[in-house]
Specification:
Oligomer: single chain
Shape: globular
Number of domains: 1
Structural class: alpha/beta
CATH superfamily: SPOUT methyltransferase, trefoil knot domain
Number of helices: 5
Largest sheet: 5 strands, parallel
Order of helices and strands: EHEHEHEHEH
Amino acid sequence: MKVTLLVVGKTTDEHIDTLIQAYQKRLTHYLPFTLQVVPELKNTKSLTAEQQKQAEGEMIMRAITPSTDLILLDEHGKEYRSIEFADYLQKRMSSGRDVVFVVGGPYGFADAVYQRANGKISLSKMTFSHQMVRLFFVEQLYRAMTILRGEPYHHE
């Protein structure tokens, strides 16, 4: 199983980007992991929120394959404790299908992306910047892999 984190726009904060890269490097010891960036839209002031979601949705849909499990990081998704997320990943890995987790743009996802999704996960009831969500997700993915291997990173 290959895991991809698909995000809209580059990580602009260099400190957050450095931390994301550190977790990406750690993850390579456990599974094939990629952080894939779809370009941020330009001239968004002339677009409505709906038009922006549609344009981003088209880019997201082009970035995935029909056989990919698409999981949205969405405020209305299911929340997991870290151990539960590890179990969730274990079940996904046993299916053998590649999984793409997606962080959308500032207005969420287009209806077509919601319809295509195989699931939704929420990292918290709180709202975080899209930059921070990337970091939190890769850390939780790393944590889940250490839990599955019985390594001492996670303390319960």
